[in-house]
Amino acid sequence: MISFSKLLILTALIAAVAALAGCANKRESTATTMTRASSTTSEHADYVPADGPEDVPADGLGLVISLGVWAGDWIAHTDAWMGWRRSCYKWLHDRVPIKPHPYETTLVLIEDEEYWHGELSGRVPIRRDYLAKLVRAIAAANPAVIALDFKLQSPSPEGKPIEYPEYMKETDELAKAISEVPSSCWVVLPKTTQRAQGHYLEEAAVYEEHDLGGAKVAKGYISLPRDFRKVPLLTLPVQNGASLDSFAQAIVRARNPRAHLDNREAILPSAAFVSLEEFPHVSARDVLKGDIETRDKLQHGLVIVGAHWHSDGYNRGDYIDLNDSPLGRMPGAVLHGNYVEAILNSRLYWDWKPVSVHIIDITGALLIALVFALKTSRILQAVAAALIALSLVGASIFSLLAFASVLDFSIPVVIVIAHALIEQYFERKKSQA
Questions:
Q1: How far apart are alpha carbons 348 and 219 in whole angstroms?
Q2: Which pTM was predicted?
Q3: What tens digit of pLDDT does each residue of 28-56 get?
Q4: Measuring CA to CA, how many Å separate 406 from each of 261, 268, 351, 389, 396?
Q5: Contact assessment for residue 204 and residue 159, using Cβ atoms and an 8 Å cutoff
Q6: In the chain, where are the structural domains located?
Q7: 63, 207, 263, 314: which is deepest, by most CB within 10 A?
């Protein structure tokens, strides 16, 4: 985020640019007036030169634009205006003509019927023996990867105890089911983490002290990025010098061990998302029934098992595990599926460098300020300002298509427009007084 010292320097630079532009306009206006005055005859002594640009207070303009740049940085690094930002991003997302499509991932969702009316009986934590049956049924379809998107952490982060005694038997059954998965299929298990003293701690999980046989098992953290547009393409350093992939990274590595997943700059990319309705998914109930069509959808693919039941009872309350996304709130399993597809199919959008964004912001804001400084009709000013704003929107869409980079809307432009409108309002009130 831009610091206060940088803000002062930026204010001075913008003020200097605006002052130079003002001086140039004033010299040009003076020279034009003198030339016209010298060429007029006595009957034109009352000639008044054409209106030129108004004098713009350079220091005030520099401060306004700099505050806009700072506000843009602050908004980008906080949860401020989250609803407005989600709406803007969704609007931009919907106008990109090339729509993503999941090719390899299918979701297996546990829904209301199974959770509230079936053997699960609405229990928290979810029954591990039910997950064991589901793992066996999915493995029978011969997928490439089975990933379980459930919290399987131990009662305490240190693993003392590793599991409550009353749940040990069903957890043993889940571990046994995982050990029986064919070697042609990877199993990705969830991990939870906590941040402490500047680094991450990997919490203990209920399956860690169980014998998983010769199964190919990978682990990944299931926590989501704070910025709902981002993809967790980041390997975390954890205790004892180890590292931990994100859940999506672990799935991709299981699918393609040679996948390039390094992200040394630790800057998360964005992605185009697909809603649950457009994402391939099947019901856990159909999987357990052994439905042939359902089994065919899982064959040779990536399978993510997740929750999609209502929180307060059958068809009551919100769905469980809803999280922010550019398309609104959606289940965590759907987000992980979007992350996996974006990484596998190179649909990652990298943000512009902050310097480039600031240059575009400042240029757009200065052009808007120049438009409002010209002594012309308010209609022409509004049209010119709208064209500049639309060009920034067009640049955002072009950035997604041509450079696979996200260019956010310009906050400084919005602030300069608001500042100019407020000034015009008070000038009108003053002239009417």
A1: 22
A2: 0.75
A3: 444 444 444 454 444 444 444 444 445 44
A4: 20, 12, 5, 17, 7
A5: yes
A6: 4-29+51-96+350-432, 105-346
A7: 207
